[in-house]
From TrEMBL:
This is Bifunctional protein FolD. Residues 138-278 form the Tetrahydrofolate dehydrogenase/cyclohydrolase NAD(P)-binding domain. Pathway: One-carbon metabolism; tetrahydrofolate interconversion. One of its GO terms (molecular function) is methenyltetrahydrofolate cyclohydrolase activity. The keyword Glycoprotein does not apply. It catalyses: (6R)-5,10-methylene-5,6,7,8-tetrahydrofolate + NADP(+) = (6R)-5,10-methenyltetrahydrofolate + NADPH; (6R)-5,10-methenyltetrahydrofolate + H2O = (6R)-10-formyltetrahydrofolate + H(+). Belongs to the tetrahydrofolate dehydrogenase/cyclohydrolase family. Keywords: Amino-acid biosynthesis, Histidine biosynthesis, Hydrolase, Methionine biosynthesis, Multifunctional enzyme, NADP, One-carbon metabolism, Oxidoreductase, Purine biosynthesis. Residues 4-118 form the Tetrahydrofolate dehydrogenase/cyclohydrolase catalytic domain. Homodimer.
């Protein structure tokens, strides 16, 4: 059994990205990311600051725009437009969730698909489903795939079971593994007999947001278990969707929370921004 060290895998990818960024800079191409935060939700704020810090560490150009909770939808769309037109900016990320008076889909669809490093724009979703190599793939699913690839396990022909069908994680993660020639099952809150499904998994991806929803009895021996859940318990501790200590002895590879998929997500955002910069300036 191995516990997959997301921090270490992310660090190695970042070192590679930093080298690529240095080379791009020599050609006069500095990858640039614009991050927009609306309101002051503490978790969103800390994610956004981490994204900005990582940009700086890797030598990228970054701009953080903090807007008040009360901003109108039109003013936010204008802000996005100005980054669409900004030659120094390759990637634009609007941190979600947004206040309820702002339409998330309008915001996402205002970002130029060529700068949509989150991979949330319908054009990029469509490109991903079509297997287009110029699609931006959402960062968390991309991080999950990278971690599974790092295990050296074959993906083609394997049965991947995804628990959770969010637009940000579950749906694109399943699609990504389908592109890798896996057989994919999606499970969700209406799935009857969840354990019957999860026991079929060679690779089990838990992306629900409920502590310990995946128990030891739901995992088949030798499975690869990827835990995407980030749940804060009453005692302040973070935990995933998987009962880690109980499942660990049964799994061939398992990701911890924290320190598993989390550190990969920001790294994949940096990866997508470097790609955006290369694709736009070619
Ligand atoms: N909120 C939580 N995760 C994400 C993400 O990956 N991108 C954006 N834009 N907002 C998020």
């Amino acid at each position: 059994m191995t516990v997959l060290d997301g921090k270490q895998i992310a660090k190695e990818i970042r070192e590679q990205l930093a080298r690529e960024i240095q080379e791009l800079k020599l050609e006069g191409n500095v990858p640039g990311l614009a991050v927009i935060l609306v309101g002051d939700h503490p978790a969103s704020r800390s994610y956004v600051l981490a994204k900005e810090r990582t940009c700086k560490e890797l030598g990228m150009h970054s701009v953080l725009t903090e807007l008040p909770e009360s901003i109108s939808e039109n003013d936010l769309l204008d802000c996005i437009q100005s980054f669409n037109n900004d030659e120094q900016i390759d990637g634009i990320l609007v941190q979600l969730p947004l206040p309820s008076h702002i339409s998330e889909s309008k915001v996402i669809e205002t970002i130029l698909p060529e700068k949509d490093v989150d991979g949330f724009h319908p054009i990029n979703i469509g490109r991903m489903h079509a297997g287009d190599e110029h699609a931006f793939i959402p960062c968390t699913p991309l991080g999950i795939l990278e971690m599974v690839k790092q295990t050296g396990e074959e993906i083609s022909g394997k049965h991947v079971v995804v628990v959770g069908r969010s637009n940000l994680v579950g749906k694109p993660a399943g699609q990504l593994f389908l592109q890798e020639n896996a057989t994919v099952t999606f499970c969700h809150s209406r799935t009857k007999n969840l354990a019957e499904q999860t026991l079929q998994a060679d690779i089990l991806i838990a992306a629900v947001g409920k502590p310990n929803i995946i128990t030891e009895a739901m995992v088949s021996p030798g499975a690869v278990v990827i835990d995407v859940g980030v749940n804060r318990l009453e005692n302040g501790k973070l935990c995933g969707d998987v009962d880690f200590e109980a499942v660990k002895p049964k799994a061939k590879h398992i990701t911890p929370v924290p320190g598993g998929v989390g550190p990969m997500t920001i790294t994949m955002l940096m990866n997508n921004t470097v790609l955006a910069s290369k694709w736009r300036k070619k």
